[in-house]
Design brief:
heterotrimer, A mainly alpha (about 230), B alpha+beta (about 325), C alpha/beta (about 300), A: about 230 residues, mainly alpha, MetI-like fold, 11 helices, globular, B: about 325 residues, alpha+beta, Rossmann fold, OB fold (Dihydrolipoamide Acetyltransferase, E2P), 2 domains, six-stranded mixed beta sheet, five-stranded antiparallel beta sheet, 18 strands, elongated
Chain lengths: ~230, ~325, ~300
């Protein structure tokens, strides 16, 4: 239990004393994971909408694929991105491996199936005649889709939270494509793993607590947004 | 603005759901599409305002209309009120918002329509808390608020109880009078057509069988199916009556005669075997096998005859309609 | 949000994605293009804004090494100095020895710092690697109760292990497939012993926990010297210095034979630097001089007792 207590003290100390490394790692974590989440939303919400609303062959198969993708181990995505970005790989010329960009790509890859599947599920909850009714009121296709997304905005917020939660807490892909380079690609999860293997358990727990605080802060913000919404009912 | 169509067809899986050679609704006119379930009424409505895939031409003021033009002109009310997760006022304003009107302005313009449909007091409530009738009133207010030049109503009253429906019909009629729109009302209820529409079209199997002034269409069925649709469910074929055309009558107009009662004047009298007596609450319906199909009589008279016994029915000639050749 | 600002300035310098993102934005009509452009821009945005700006473009090499060099913190000391001295920035990947060698073989790394001598020799014989030079070593020690009931002092390491087994004196293993555990199994193998029975316990935990269990039960255990020194358990170092207990690190330069993008000049710069006097001095002084022994220029065969 000493370790937990020390970890808590260490976490508070690191944050309060403005430990530059910790803040840099925290900043990078937020930057990478939030960017990856936004990208996953940009790609995944339209795809999820197509899967939820489209009427075409293979729709169910694609939905099943997306649902399976939700359980995709981050390490597998990390490995895939790594091989793609290898010097000898198809995108090797870009020189992106072991950069935050690579981490964003991998994490977006992890979050996108989650966003697709959960978006489809969220839109399924909306009345099936919703789009028809919006068009029947004179909405253009784009406006009708916008109204649909607005209608589903609470579940869609949850989708974003799920995506962010998945990527901010994963370590496999971040380690593999980022390389855990000090000051460059070290994020809270990989830093915690490193601290653990260095035997600095208190520091590791401190990083873990910072991670927890971030996840909590983000969720709190979103939950408050949701409540503001429901309060105006 | 008038709306119409030429050669409008909707097919699905190789089956023709709707095929309408021509339908025209004049500016300011209300036309009812009356038909049984599955006749393609909703499909016709959706095709006419390009809410579903179709072939053929839709005309606005006599000119072929694009989907965009239709979006500008039309507002639709569906059978089930689909409301947004928002207040009643914001729902009423939604149509205007979808057309690019700013929020405050949209609310300001929507409010009188909530009043017109008797739901102004619900304005701050959340849409989820409304009853079915209230929700449909909001949906209608939402459609009227955009000041559509064409209004299409897809069985807007079907989910409502009788009292609610009567009140809403009256409110809607008044509201439509404030608005000079051409209105298409899809319904399976003659009373709704009667209350709202100047003209009525009968749709059977995706085709318009009959169209004309509502009062005459409702009273003059052109063929046996239309007759059934309009309530003339007692069909008396030539073999029974000796006439050269099919005669039809409403069961309410078929009177059972006592054994000793003489034939009334100016009436068609026919015999059959009573098959069963169906209580309708107050009145009863007698199903009578004439040997040439089933005839029905709805009556409040005391019936002593038991099923299986012969019975005579009389219909005044004024209540008989000739149907087909 | 400053990183978005930096993005703009960095993108302006001609990052690879720039042309694509620009094109997509200009053709612009389909929504999907805009989304793709936004995605590319965002990915880049997150990628930029680190302190990469300090290093001249292109002078960046990839070092594949073992977790021990990173976990000990040695690299954190060495690499910034190397960058200052040569201008080469280093991306160091701390992986297993096997993976490090594989990365070299595929040309995904420019230089290797590893400690698997047999595998290294075989790898160098394949021909894609360049010079291989001795850098340093650290070691494992056999720790146990001061009384040394099995009589392991001053024995060859393998013999010491055999004695522990034959006397049943008690041994605590990490049993976690770590490098230490692997070395322990290797020693048992060389001693011809299959450890099992009441005297042999496996914790399945880290070195610290294993040391605690060993000291509480007055048993022997194999530990790396660094952890022994930091944990200061009430156990004595009874056996050390045998070559079988050493981790010998070599630096291996990769060549273009391994891959087109390998940078032999960077590899040579790193290898030359780490066997140089300055780096060797830093290695010797690291961790109060007790963790690593600089060995550059020595005869490998002469290492150990």
């Amino acid at each position: 239990m000493d370790v937990l207590g020390d970890g808590l003290v260490e976490a508070v100390r690191l944050l309060l004393t403005g430990d530059q490394d910790t803040w840099a790692i925290t900043g990078l974590t937020l930057r990478v994971s939030l960017t990856a989440t936004v990208i996953a939303l940009l790609i995944g919400v339209p795809l999820g909408a197509v899967l939820a609303l489209g009427r075409f062959r293979g729709r169910r198969v694609l939905l099943a694929i997306a649902n399976t993708g939700m359980g995709l181990p981050p390490v597998v995505v990390g490995l895939f991105v790594t091989v793609l970005l290898w010097r000898s790989g198809p995108l090797g010329a870009l020189g992106l491996l072991y950069t935050p960009t690579a981490m964003v790509i991998a994490q977006a890859g992890i979050a996108t199936p989650i966003v697709v599947a959960l978006t489809a599920a969220a839109l399924h909850q909306v009345d099936p005649d919703f789009l028809l009714q919006m068009r029947g009121l004179g909405a253009t296709r784009v406006r009708a889709l916008g109204a649909l997304l607005t209608e589903a905005k609470l579940p869609l917020l949850a989708v974003g939270m799920a995506g962010f939660g998945a990527v901010v807490s994963e370590v496999g892909a971040a380690q593999m494509v980022g390389g855990n380079l000090a000051g460059e690609t070290r994020v809270l999860t990989t830093a915690a793993v490193l601290a653990t293997s260095r035997g600095q358990f208190a520091l590791a727990i401190a990083f873990g607590l910072v991670l927890l605080a971030i996840a909590f802060a983000v969720n709190l913000a979103v939950t408050f947004a949701q409540h503001r919404q429901t309060a105006t009912r | 603005m008038s709306i119409g169509c030429r050669d409008l067809r909707v097919t699905a899986g190789g089956r023709t759901l709707v095929s309408v050679a021509a339908l025209d609704i004049d500016d300011g006119e209300t036309v009812a599409i009356l038909g049984p379930n599955g006749a393609g009424k909703s499909t016709l409505l959706r095709a006419l305002v390009h809410l579903t895939q179709s072939s053929g031409t839709v005309l606005l003021d006599g000119q072929p209309a694009t989907t965009t033009a239709l979006r500008h002109a039309v507002a639709a009310v569906l059978q089930r009120p689909v409301l947004q997760r928002a207040t009643v006022l914001d729902n009423a304003a939604a149509g205007l918002r979808l057309r690019g009107v700013r929020r405050a302005e949209a609310r300001r313009r929507a409010e009188p329509w909530l009043d017109a449909l008797g739901v102004a007091h619900l304005a701050p409530r959340h849409a989820r808390t409304l009853s079915g009738g209230e929700a449909q009133r909001v949906a209608i207010a939402r459609a009227l608020a955009v000041a559509p030049r064409v209004l299409v109503l897809d069985e807007p009253f079907s989910g409502l109880d009788a009292t609610t429906r009567t009140d809403l019909l009256a409110d809607l009629r008044a509201a439509l009078d404030r608005l000079s729109a051409s209105v298409l009302l899809v319904t399976h209820d003659r009373a709704e057509a009667h209350a709202l529409a100047q003209r009525t079209a009968l749709l059977v199997d995706g085709e318009i069988r009959q169209i004309g002034k509502t009062s005459s269409v409702l009273d003059e069925p052109a063929d046996p199916e239309c007759a059934t649709l309009l309530g003339f469910t007692t069909h008396l074929p030539p073999a029974l009556t000796g006439r050269d055309v099919l005669l039809v009558a409403r069961p309410e107009r078929c009177t059972p005669l006592g054994d000793t009662t003489p034939d009334p004047p100016d009436s068609l009298v026919f015999e059959g075997v009573l098959r069963r007596v169906v209580p309708l609450g107050g009145a009863v319906r007698l199903d009578v096998d004439t040997g040439h199909g089933l005839a029905a009589s709805v009556t409040t008279a005391d019936i002593t005859a038991a099923p299986g016994s012969p019975i005579r029915l009389a219909v005044n000639v004024d209540d008989l309609r000739a149907c087909g050749r | 949000m400053t990183w978005y600002v930096r993005l703009v300035s960095r993108v302006g310098r001609g990052q690879p994605f720039r042309a694509r993102a620009g094109m997509a934005a200009r053709k612009g009509t389909p929504v999907i293009r805009r989304v793709l452009a936004a995605v590319a821009a965002l990915a880049l945005a997150a990628g930029c804004g680190t302190d990469q700006a300090a290093a001249p473009a292109g002078k960046e090499l990839i070092l594949a090494t073992t977790t021990s060099t990173q976990d000990s913190g040695l690299l954190d000391d060495l690499l910034p100095e190397f960058t200052r001295d040569t201008g080469w920035r280093v991306k160091s990947l701390a992986v297993g020895s096997g993976q490090a060698i594989e990365l070299g073989r595929r040309g995904e790394a420019d230089v290797l710092l590893v400690h698997s001598p047999e595998a290294e020799v075989r790898f160098v014989a394949e021909g894609s690697a360049g010079p291989r030079r001795l850098v340093m070593h650290n070691d494992f020690v056999l720790a146990g109760p001061a009384g040394d009931p099995a009589g392991t002092r001053n024995q060859p390491a393998v013999e010491a292990m055999r004695k522990i087994a034959s006397t049943g004196a008690g041994f605590v293993s990490r049993g976690d497939e770590s490098g230490t555990h692997a070395r322990e199994k290797q020693l048992w193998h060389q001693a011809g012993v299959t450890p099992s029975g009441g005297w042999y316990r496996s914790t399945g935990q880290g070195m610290g926990a294993t040391l605690r269990v060993a000291s509480e039960t007055s048993a022997y255990t194999l530990t790396d010297r660094a952890t022994y020194l930091t944990q200061k358990p009430p156990l004595e170092v009874l056996n050390e210095g045998d070559k079988a207990l050493l981790n010998i690190y070599h630096v291996i330069e990769m060549t273009r034979k391994a891959g087109d993008r390998v940078q032999p000049e960077g590899a040579k710069a790193f290898a030359d630097w780490i066997v140089g006097a300055k780096a060797q001095g830093m290695i010797g002084a690291f961790g109060e001089g007790k963790l690593f022994v600089p060995d550059a220029g020595k005869d490998e065969a002469a290492l150990g007792s």
